Amino acid sequence: xxxxxxxxxxxxxxxxxxxxxxxxxxxxxxxxxxxxxxxxxxxxxxxxxxxxxxxxxxxxxxxxxxxxxxxxxxxxxxxxxxxxxxxxxxxxxxxxxxxxxxxxxxxxxxxxxxxxxxxxxxxxxxxxxxxxxxxxxxxxxxxxxxxxxxxxxxxxxxxxxxxxxxxxxxxxxxxxxxxxxxxxxxxxxxxxxxxxxxxxxxxxxxxxxxxxxxxxxxxxxxxxxxxxxxxxxxxxxxxxxxxxxxxxxxxxxxxxxxxxxxxxxxxxxxxxxxxxxxxxxxxxxxxxxxxxxxxxxxxxxxxxxxxxxxxxxxxxxxxxxxxxxxxxxxxxxxxxxxxxxxxxxxxxxxxxxxxxxxxxxxxxxxxxxxxxxxxx
Amino acid sequence: xxxxxxxxxxxxxxxxxxxxxxxxxxxxxxxxxxxxxxxxxxxxxxxxxxxxxxxxxxxxxxxxxxxxxxxxxxxxxxxxxxxxxxxxxxxxxxxxxxxxxxxxxxxxxxxxxxxxxxxxxxxxxxxxxxxxxxxxxxxxxxxxxxxxxxxxxxxxxxxxxxxxxxxxxxxxxxxxxxxxxxxxxxxxxxxxxxxxxxxxxxxxxxxxxxxxxxxxxxxxxxxxxxxxxxxxxxxxxxxxxxxxxxxxxxxxxxxxxxxxxxxxxxxxxxxxxxxxxxxxxxxxxxxxxxxxxxxxxxxxxxxxxxxxxxxxxxxxxxxxxxxxxxxxxxxxxxxxxxxxxxxxxxxxxxxxxxxxxxxxxxxxxxxxxxxxxxxx
Lengths: 376, 376
Description:
The structure is a homodimer.
Chain A: E1 2-8, E2 15-21, E3 24-28, E4 30-32, E5 34-35, H1 45-50, E6 57-59, H2 61-66, H3 70-76, H4 79-83, E7 89-91, H5 95-101, E8 105-107, E9 112-115, E10 122-125, H6 127-137, E11 141-143, H7 155-178, E12 188-190, E13 192-193, H8 199-210, E14 217-219, H9 228-239, E15 248-250, H10 256-263, E16 269-271, H11 274-280, E17 283-286, E18 289-292, H12 312-316, H13 319-327, H14 331-358, H15 361-373
Helix pairs in contact in A: 6-7, 7-8, 8-9, 10-14, 10-15, 11-14, 13-14, 14-15
Keywords (chains A, B): Glycosyltransferase, Queuosine biosynthesis, Transferase, tRNA processing
GO molecular function (chains A, B): tRNA-guanosine(34) queuine transglycosylase activity
Pathway (chains A, B): tRNA modification; tRNA-queuosine biosynthesis
């Protein structure tokens, strides 16, 4: 797996690059749709490919480990074979869901004991186990097992947690070295910078993470409730320390505005449940601003869902029809809105890339962040 | 609108025909997917067309009248324009939902007063109003406003109700004559035979309905809980009375076996929620029998969902994957199973038609009804 930095923007810290994997090349900056349980909710794999232009999707280790379970995924020959998505897959380590979804969990140096949210059964994740599981799932990009601190988080806890995350990281790399890919293609481990919103901790963590010389690096512990300024400040600080020649992945971010601002700070990869989760509540992101399709305002609007949209659903369905579907809790409404939002996110990062390559990113970004925040 | 009888099977009463409408020709026998609220649940319109090969779909007057409401549908220029389905649409009269879904309803000679299941608001449907609403929805085929008697139903009530349905039918035809299509294409009224499971009533009702010389005729009040023998007996009796040169539509039927048996009795058109509703519970109809995809048996079965299936989903997704999706309540599982089941129903009636045309229907049907009832 290899990252090539193709162009650096002159007015911002934005970059365009290419990450080569055994399942294909990812052009950055990129947004990665979240496929929690081996499926991006409401979206067929061929729609991800042809309508949304996704280049890489996420899987959630916690969910896949519980259902369908590792035996099934390994039986299929890995997640790509299981769900029929043949492009790259990144899996998180399971840590985030363990902290946020589990009824009971106990974090110790050895690892984390937790209860399944399905049936209350007990499970134990360690850094080593998280690597083994991701090896079995067959992710192209494996994420380190870390603790994602909440917001707000007191300094003492953030510091203690960060150090444990660093010790866990060493164990993750050791386990990667001790094990081999199961399905014949390369799997790379991305370590994760933590440190909450504390500059000295973020600095120290970024330096530590950089020292591992991984194929790519991630920034975690953000987009957990902190104000946007904190998000941008920490991202800027960390991007300044992480090596330039490696891709930078900002985990769980964010709104279209967040994404453009963080591209300008030097981030290459993003993921977020927002486009699909908000779609199910009728929130549509468009190049002219945000639409709440449930509003009365759209009831008699028979114009295409998004005349500027790149997906087929944008042209063949009207605002009025999609409003009706979402208000009636019809599956098709969630499907249309999900495809629309994901296609919009992908078109946005694709245009950002084009703008970086042709040198017009900065002006375009400044105009876009105003429009994107509009409420239509 | 015109029906052409193309071929009569020699060993059974099965027929092949063509119903020409302003939105295209329907080749019979045909199955019509149910698009309750202007959407076949979980299925895109282009999937109905290209994957499922649907030729006509249903809309439910009761649901569409309440949501999105007539103003919206008329504003769009009718249901075809509203939902983007450009082939024929049939609407029921709303009566069935009024009887089965409404909390409160009062049936009188004038019409039926009922409460919305959404908000408890009061509404009043009459035969005239049911025609007006269906004119506004823009159905190609409009169904008469009738009373669908439950099963079991005592003789006296069935008789009284049948006579009222006949009086209502006269009012429906009168209202059709007094009104014109709203969107420039022809709309035809199909009357409905009632009479519960009583032979003399069914006979009398079929004769009455036949006397109206409508473009097509329907058989209602079946598939409401009666045993299959009663369904077949009543269908056979009524088909023997309804004119041969007009299409016969058996409402709300049924399983794949029911459909083949009733084609053999002379039915041309079917609709049923079973393929989509059962799909959402993991029941898949296949040419080898019925699969409950939730069963442990399919957990490690990585073979295609249905190797004999005609839809793309049948080949690109495995049984194991679809089992996982349905058990995890993932939208995509419901989508895949719905497309599969509908494509299977359409492929089944299409093959029935081919067999009728080439004279091999009877033997094929006898073999198929055994296989179709298998539990795999």
